[in-house]
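Input (Urease accessory protein UreE):
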Amino acid sequence: MQRATTIVRKAAVRPDAVADEVALDHAARSRRSAELTAQGGLAFRLDLDRATTLEDGDAVRLEDGRLVRILAAPQALLAVTAENPIRLTRLAWQLGSNHVQAEMTAEALYVLDDPVVAELIRGQGCTATALQRPFRPEKEAAAHDHSTCGHDHHQHHGHEPHAHEHATHEHHGHDHHGHDHGHGHQHGHAHDHAHDHQHHAHDHGHVHGPGCKHGH
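Output:
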């Protein structure tokens, strides 16, 4: 069985190289691997490097160089319309929140025919009409790859948390150059520095500890 490993997009498809055509619904056009039989009887195995969506008019190249054109097969859909565009916008937001695939056009919004989705549509005051047509839902946005960002997501605003240099920190209006800040003494940065807090002849050479009665 011939394998098809390469995609040829519609604009590059040469009609004289097309050996057969195969009609596939949206799910089948999104597979990476499958055994298929074209309309003329040509059997082949789709064997792509990664899953992608084949669009109507694209082709896949067989190992012998021949092309098989891809056709978007009609499938059961609901055409959604609303007299009030706000209702349609609200519905589109809810469909997206529920990961329901949808195709948006100037005339209507199209979704797969599903009873649960149909109930949601009518609950939003929109009209759902069943029909058969090819389904071309909007593509999902590509996920952001932080590994290629070039910036470090473990730091915020260019500084490291709790890395303040206390050796020059002014506390209560007096200089703490002699304090040892390796102990569990915590500074509340939200306190009011406006009060007058003076230490007359206070020896800052001691180390604050659990038994320290030095009031801050």
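Residues 143-214 have pLDDT under 50 and may be disordered.
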